[in-house]
Recover the amino acids of this structure.
């Protein structure tokens, strides 16, 4: 049942790609609605900024449309889209070296003396449930820990833990050997273990 | 457990947590973990970091995303570009080349280009009768003969004699003393 379903999805993707190659906008829109949330989630976790992520996600699909004739059918369309997205993120980091998390909706707001202003505001709200605050704080800590990782390690760990890609799919996306992905994920986990040590037993 | 066996096993710990090891590797790690609390704690922490990252809330795109994208795509200047000759060549190379060579198509093309351009150029520059890489042997000769130069001008002849004289070969004395003598 599952095999039949996944086969059907694959063939549909292939036929959508073929139609897209002939500038069929309906096929393009179907591909967009199928993959937009995944690509946005990946780019959002890479950049940490909702606005940047939305712009970059648009750019990913514009590139998909204009370069669809260069798409090699030996990879899946999602792998190809993650690859375009990863490259665009890298370009954006290069252009805007210190912008990461500048406009993040989730990053903690720090005042000049290093006090966590956002955390303090929420903590003062007596009617906010403790669990909600705890979860928000934890998410912020995880995002900050991810932000500290070099982009290549961050990408590998997000593609695995958030997007659910297998190591060989990540290797195909990043265009590197499987061994490189193993060591990137090992290094990413070791760094996250250090940054998040206070939250690991929870 | 000794440190050496931990060092050997640790690169396998992330693949172990993510179920990306071969059955043999899995067995090797499991055997190691039975006697190593340090590596077991790394495995537990790695699994916990994976769990934490996967629990991050899913962000949602704004409602107008698809409409905005459709407007951009509808712009007549945007249309699927035809595949470039270079991409066709790359695709052909990746389909036909053996595995080992496939990884570096750019280097392969560069090497062929170098041969195509380099060989005829070397051949033209070195002369057609000379084997590649070997230039004609030329014996270096001075442009002017010293003896004829000395003979051509009495002033040069005088300087030449002075230069070759016994006095010129003597070590220099104390310059202050020689000045004093002159005075």
């Amino acid at each position: 049942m599952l095999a039949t379903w996944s086969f059907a999805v694959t063939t549909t993707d292939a036929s959508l790609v073929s139609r897209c190659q002939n500038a069929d906008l309906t096929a393009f829109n179907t591909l967009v609605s199928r993959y937009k949330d995944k690509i946005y989630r990946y780019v959002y976790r890479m950049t940490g900024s909702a606005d940047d992520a939305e712009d970059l996600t648009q750019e990913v699909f514009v590139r998909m449309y204009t370069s669809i004739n260069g798409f090699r059918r030996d990879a899946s369309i999602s792998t190809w889209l993650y690859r375009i997205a990863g490259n665009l993120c890298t370009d954006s980091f290069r252009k805007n070296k210190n912008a990461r998390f500048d406009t993040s909706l989730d990053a903690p707001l720090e005042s000049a003396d290093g006090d966590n202003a956002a955390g303090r505001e929420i903590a003062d709200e007596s009617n906010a449930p403790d669990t909600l605050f705890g979860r928000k704080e934890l998410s912020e800590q995880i995002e900050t820990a991810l932000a500290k990782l070099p982009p290549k390690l961050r990408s590998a760990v997000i593609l695995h833990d958030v997007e659910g890609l297998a190591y060989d799919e990540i290797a195909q996306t990043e265009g590197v050997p499987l061994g490189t992905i193993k060591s990137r994920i090992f290094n990413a986990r070791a760094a996250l273990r250090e940054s998040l040590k206070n939250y690991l037993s929870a | 457990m000794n440190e050496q066996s931990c060092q050997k096993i640790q690169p396998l710990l992330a693949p172990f947590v993510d179920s990306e090891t071969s059955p043999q590797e899995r067995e090797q790690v499991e055997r190691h973990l039975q006697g190593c609390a340090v590596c077991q704690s790394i495995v537990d922490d790695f699994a916990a970091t994976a769990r934490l990252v996967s629990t991050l809330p899913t962000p949602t795109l704004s409602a107008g995303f698809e409409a905005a994208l459709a407007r951009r795509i509808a712009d007549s200047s945007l249309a699927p570009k035809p595949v470039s000759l270079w991409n066709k060549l790359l695709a052909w190379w990746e389909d036909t080349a053996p595995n080992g060579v496939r990884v570096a198509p750019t280097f392969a093309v560069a090497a062929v280009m170098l041969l195509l351009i380099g060989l005829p150029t070397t051949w033209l520059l070195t002369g057609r009768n000379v084997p590649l890489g070997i230039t004609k042997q030329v014996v270096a000769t001075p442009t002017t003969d010293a003896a004829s130069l000395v003979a051509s001008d009495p002033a040069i002849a005088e300087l030449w004699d002075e230069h070759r004289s016994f006095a010129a070969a003597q070590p220099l004395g104390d310059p202050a003393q020689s000045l004093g003598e002159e005075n």
About this structure: The radius of gyration of chain A is 19 Å. Residues 1-105 of chain A form a domain with the Rna Polymerase Sigma Factor; Chain: A fold (CATH 1.10.1740.10).
